[in-house]
Amino acid sequence: MDWDDLRIFLAVARTESLSGAGRRLGMDASTIGRRIARLEGAVGAALFAKTPQGYALTAEGARLIAPAEAAEQGANAAAEAVRREAGLTGQLRIGAPDGCANYLLPQVARDLCAAHPGLDIQIVALPRVVNLTKREADMAVAVSPPDTGRLTVQRLTDYHLHLAAHRDYLRAAPPIRDLADLRGHRMIGYIPDMIFDRELDYLSETGVESAAITSNSVSVQMQAIRAGAGLGIVHDFAIPFAPGVELVLPDRIALRRSFWLIRHADDRASRRLSLLADLLAQGLRAEVARLESQLRRT
């Protein structure tokens, strides 16, 4: 059985579509379809059933997953052995919530690429949990540890959040001396039904029941705060990127959360990915500490 056909099979199984597999592999959907048909001919059974939601594995397809993933691990190990002498090279795709992806990972990726010029780093910013089982990324940063799946979890670092607003908003708005004063102010936060992790439910910390301006993106919320649209809970590490944004009631509203590094359990055997995970963890810890220390000095 051809490994390349198995590689295509896994891509379709993980994306549940020919076009999605094609985008992941850099191939057109018609070629993907022909290769799947060839593989089905080789095994003598249909591997996928077309449904309104996409391509679902048949019973025969589900049985092929384990041997296909074993072949994938073997191919990855062989490729890793070939490039080991050349240092850390090749593609690394990192999934992360958009706060981490926007304010932390660009600097970490810069330093990793400077130290290892052969690396190709892709940052996938998603307002949801990255699905490593479907190989949406090689590893992912999350705001809480998963409780299902064949995954390994490593605590990276704590980070802090505070209520903040732009100084232009604060000059024009009624004074804020206590939590009760917030009820007379415009709040900015997450769209309630799009909060994908309980750790992101910040608004309850303020005692205010609803926000006037909401987004599923941390970056959009920060831009609204920078525009003087109101008050919101923001990451301390993001404030150095937002001139004019100031803490509000820092002694009354102070949150602490954690970042976690998530990897597929099968990747523990990869020396390359383990080294990259260690370097990523070190870089994120250092960058959170650096940016939060800037806020403390102001």
Q: Main attributes?
A:
11 strands, D-Maltodextrin-Binding Protein, domain 2, 298 residues, single chain, nine-stranded mixed β-sheet, alpha/beta, 2 domains, two-stranded antiparallel ribbon, Arc Repressor Mutant, subunit A
Can you walk through the features of this model?
A hairpin with a 2-residue loop joins β1 (48-51) and β2. This protein has two domains: 3-84, Orthogonal Bundle (Arc Repressor Mutant, subunit A), CATH 1.10.10; 88-298, 3-Layer(aba) Sandwich (D-Maltodextrin-Binding Protein, domain 2). The strands form two sheets. Strands 3, 4, 5, 6, 7, 8, 9, 10 and 11 form a nine-stranded mixed β-sheet that branches. α1 packs across α3, α1 (3-15) crosses α4 and α2 crosses α3 (29-43). The protein has helices spanning 3-15, 18-25, 29-43, 59-83, 98-103, 105-115, 167-172, 218-226, 271-297; strands at residues 48-51, 54-57, 90-96, 119-125, 139-142, 151-166, 187-189, 213-214, 231-235, 245-247, 254-264. The chain is an alpha/beta fold and 298 residues long.
